[in-house]
Amino acid sequence: MKRVVITGAGTINALGHDVAETLESMREGRCGIGPIDIRDVDRLAIKIGGQVKGFEAEGIFNRQQMSLYDRFTQFTLVAAREAIAQAGLEFHGELAARSGVVLGNSGGGMTTLDDNYRTVYEEGKNRVHPFVVPKLMNNAAASHVSMEFNLKGPSFTVASACASSNHAMAQAFQMVRHGMAPVMVTGGSESMLCFGGVKAWEGLRVMSRDACRPFSANRNGMVQGEGAGVFVFEDYEHAKKRGAEVMAEVAGFAMSSDAADIVMPSKQGAARAIAGALQDAGLNASDVCYINAHGTGTAANDKTECAAVADVFGAHADHLMISSTKSMHGHLIGGTGAVELLACIMALRDGVIAPTIGYEEPDPECALDVVPNVAREARVDAALSNAFAFGGLNAVLALKKV
Amino acid sequence: MSVKDKVIAIIAEQAVLEPSDVTMESTLEDLGIDSLGLVESIFAIEESFDISVPFNANAPKESDFDISSVASIVAGIERLIAEQKT
Lengths: 402, 86
Fold this sequence. Notes:
The complex is a heterodimer of chains A (402) and B (86).
Chain A: E1 4-13, H1 19-28, E2 34-35, E3 48-49, H2 63-68, H3 71-87, H4 93-98, E4 100-104, H5 110-122, H6 132-136, H7 140-149, E5 155-158, H8 164-177, E6 183-190, H9 195-204, E7 227-235, H10 236-241, E8 248-257, H11 267-281, E9 290-292, H12 299-313, E10 321-323, H13 326-329, H14 336-350, E11 352-353, E12 376-377, E13 382-389, E14 393-400
Parallel strand pairs in A: 4-5, 4-6, 9-10, 9-13
Antiparallel strand pairs in A: 1-7, 1-8, 2-3, 6-7, 8-14, 11-12, 13-14
Helix pairs in contact in A: 3-7, 11-12
Chain B: H1 3-15, H2 35-49, H3 70-84
Organism (chain B): Aquicoccus porphyridii
Keywords (chain B): Phosphopantetheine, Phosphoprotein
Protein name (chain B): Acyl carrier protein
C-alpha cells in the first residue's frame, strides 16, 4: 500500500476566498455567519447563513463558462485552481490518464433549480435555458474540474448529505493508497443558500435564527453555509520524487451506516466509524490530539457525537481537543468535510487548533474540551475529521503529521 | 431591427464575433458554433421572437428547420413568425 499525502489545498467559504484567509479567520475565531443576501429573504424565517460575500464570478469565468457553471461549480473551480496551483502539478500523458477527481456534493445546482422553477411556475413561462440540466447535475463540478485540468482517470461525485465530502475524500484516498491513481483531486462543495434551499431546511425546524453554538448548553440549531474545499491527494513517493511540499498525510478512514433512522444520529454508528478510522490508520486512541467535530449545533448531534467520542477514547477523551468550525463557516452540507479538513491540516502543520466559537454555557452532555471561543497552540501528531450524515451515513478521516 | 439583423446579432454574440463578420452565406461551422452553441442560439431566437423552433438536436437534418447557413436560418425564422404570429 502507498502512503498518501496532501500536496495542495484550495477553498472559498464564508471565512475567506482562499486557504490563507480561511485559516487566519479560524485562528482569530472570526464568525462568517451573518444576515444572508438572497432573493425573497423576507419570506424566510431563517435569515442567517455562512454566505460567501464579495465573490464576483464575472472576470474569473468567461461568458460561455458562466452560462454552464452553477454557483457550486464556480466555488469548486476556484478552490481547485488554488489547490492544483499549490501542488504545482500539470496533467499530461500517463499522469493525466490515471488521475481523476472525486467530489462530494449534496444538492447539486440548487440556485439553477430555484431560478428555473421560478421561470416555469412563478412566471408561467414554457421555455427554459438549454443548459439547465448540465448546470444543475451534481457531477457538473467534478466534470468541469476534470476538463479544466485534463484529469482523465476515475472521476465522479459522491452524495451522502452532510458526509459527502468525507466519503469522497475517503474514496480518493483509497484510489491513491492502492496504486490505482498517482494523484486524485478531491473534496467537495455546496451552494444551497437560495430561497428554496433555505426554505427546505426551515421545514425541518432544526435551524438556529441567531448563531451556531456547537456543544454549548444554549445551542439552538444549525446554520447553513456554502462554498468549496478541494485538495490534491498524492502518492507520497510521487510527491517526494518531484520535491512537492507536503501539508499532511492522510493515514486512514472508516465509513459506517447507522441503519436506524433517516435523521436521528446513532452513537454506535458514529463510534464504529471513529474506531474504524483509528484502526485503519494504525493509530492508538492516545495518539489523537485533535478531532474536528461534525458539531452541527443541534441538540441531537452534539450530545451523540460527544458520547461516541467518549466511548471510543475512554479516559483519553478528556485529554484531546474537539472543536466545531461550523460555528464560524456554517454547515456546508455536502462540502462541509472538505472545508473542515483545513482545520485538521492547520492543527497538524501549524500547531494551531481552531476554536468552537459562540460557546456560552457548558453542557454536561458535551463535557469534552471543545476549545471554546479562542484558538489554541498545541503539537498535534494525529487528527480526525468527523462527518455524520442524515440517513445515518458516517465517514471519518484520520490524518497524521508528516 | 429586421429579422435578419436580429438573427445575425444573436449568432454573432454566440460566436463572439462582430455582426459584420457574420454573412448570410456563413455556416455555423464556419463561425465556430458547436452543438451546445446551436441550442443556446435557438433558445435566444425563441425568446426574442416569441416563437417555437421545431429543432431536435438528435436529428438536426430531419427537423423541419434548416440550419445549413445563416440565410436558411433567417428564412426559417421568417416563415415561423408568419405561421405562429397570425
